Amino acid sequence: MKFVKYSSKGNSIGLDDNIVSYWQINVQGEVIRSIEIQSNGELLKYLEEHQADSYGQLPEGIITNDNLNNQSYGTCEFLTESDFDKMWSKKAINFN
User: Fold this and answer.
1) Distance CA 1, CA 14 (A)
2) Sheet containing 75-78: which strands, arranged edge to edge?
């Protein structure tokens, strides 16, 4: 299991620079819990039981180590499970 903080700041592919997400990634490389922090500070949460809503969705596809290290998309920082869970415990506007 991996716990990651993703930031699009400094990306070179044209993404908005204000995307900040936290991901719990299983051993198969699938994001199983996701937190997105909107530019106004509000949180969105997604997990297998709540994969999508009118705000967004749980990231799809397989996340590899190459993806996590590819700084053209921004930066990824590895977290502890405890750090991720602290973020997960915060109130979101779409799911709690």
Assistant:
1) 29
2) 43-47, 31-37, 20-25, 2-7, 75-78
* Whole-angstrom distance, CA of residue 42 vs CA of residue 10: 22
Residue 53's alpha-carbon distances to 31, 49, 50, 61, in angstroms, are 16, 12, 8, 18
Question: Is the backbone of residue 5 left (phi > 0), alpha (psi -120 to 50) or beta?
Answer: beta
Question: Angle CA(80)–CA(10)–CA(15) in degrees, nearest 5?
Answer: 95
Model confidence pTM above 0.85:
yes
Task: Write out the chain's pLDDT in tens, 96 residues.
Answer: 999 999 988 777 766 777 899 999 999 999 999 999 988 999 999 999 999 999 999 999 999 999 999 888 889 999 999 999 999 999 999 977
